[in-house]
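Following up on my earlier thread - several people asked me to post the actual chain instead of describing it. Fair enough. Here it is, all 52 residues.
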Amino acid sequence: MVDRGLRDEGTTRRLLGAHLLAPEGADSLQTAALAIRHGLSIEDLAEAIFPY
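Reply from S.P.:
Thanks for posting it. Predicted structure:
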């Protein structure tokens, strides 16, 4: 089972929070934590390349 959720700030689409319930979910959650810390938007994450 995989359940994912992202919460953004309506107008700027800046990422405010995330939850993930899945095996090895911590890997993706670390990415969300970095995005929140650096003020990235949902679009910024969508354009990112993850080579693993």
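The beta strands are 3-8, 15-21. That should answer part of your original question.
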